[in-house]
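Holo prediction. Input below; ligand is heme C.
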Amino acid sequence: VALNRLLSTLALAALLGGSAWLAQDAQANFADSAGFSGRGGATCIACHTLAPAPLTPPPAAAVIEGLPAAWDPGQAYALTLRVEGGPSALPAPAPQGGFDLSLDAGTLSFPPEMDGLLRNPNAQEVTYLPEGTMRREWQVVWTAPGLEQRPRPVQLWMAVVSADGNHVVALNASDGGERFDAVDAIAFALPASSAAEAAWRALPLLPPAAEAASTELRTIVAGRHADGNATHIAWRLDGGQWTVREAGAEWRVRLDGLEAGPHTFAVRSEGADRASPETTVRFDVPGFAIDLPGGKDTPAPPAPLLLLCLLALAVVALRSRR
Ligand code: HEC
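Structure of the complex:
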């Protein structure tokens, strides 16, 4: 029996150590079990291990009411959290239960009537305060994410304890009594509604910024995406075919050998199945000397002297590189 005791104490110590490791800097005791929703792997059972038969408490169940089948962007959902089953509850001030809830998108808060009973360890987690353990039902509010990012399934984790009330005040030390409480944990993904996906697709990206700089020989259009979701540009010249290509935050399009005169360059940002309105850049390509003898309006061939100069410059540049 003594050996058995020693072994179970060792096992508990190992579990305590292990759970602390799993949940990183989360520390749990009666007063504070943040970090044990299951999001980091560990749930309440890390410490509230179940007592062996015949002392095993009846099973508990974590219940969430008020969640939609699929979430809509920016919508606030009033949720009722409950722990059902487990040992029978003792009247306050004996603790009756607790929970830790996390979601990986949107924000969690709670209504004013829960002030002093609950707290937010961070914007995506709600857990109990000691005053909040004298019940088995709590109210929280989940505000779904907006359309800053493409709608995706939101992951949810909730771990609960159905307490037998043998710890009136938080001692922050284990006497083994927490093993007569029952536990449960649930985790699932909540899909985005088809309306959320449609709203995402309908929402245009921000249009890109672009400027053109032209010489007789070449035009460079330099641009920037204004929308963080943009991954591609689609562009066309003078109402021609669209060209689509991948483009980072800053990009350039080089246009060689354009005819002298006015041109129109249209470009839009694209990404994640969405497009921006077009940005239009109008520019003029300067012409070569006109007013030629004979009244012919033909571009003059590049002067041999100019070509020689360019060649000389290139040679100098190459040499100074070495
Ligand atoms: C790191 C260990 C640890 C984890 C993890 C843990 N607890 Fe506890 N819990 C304790 C200890 C130890 C006690 C009893 C000692 C005390 O009063 O602090 C306790 C007591 C409680 C009590 C009072 C029980 C009673 O019968 O009086 C509640 C309620 C409670 N915990 C809720 C939770 C919930 C909910 C979670 C998970 C979200 C959780 N605990 C996770 C260690 C832990």
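The CA atoms of residues 229 and 272 lie 7 Å apart. That is the main takeaway for now.
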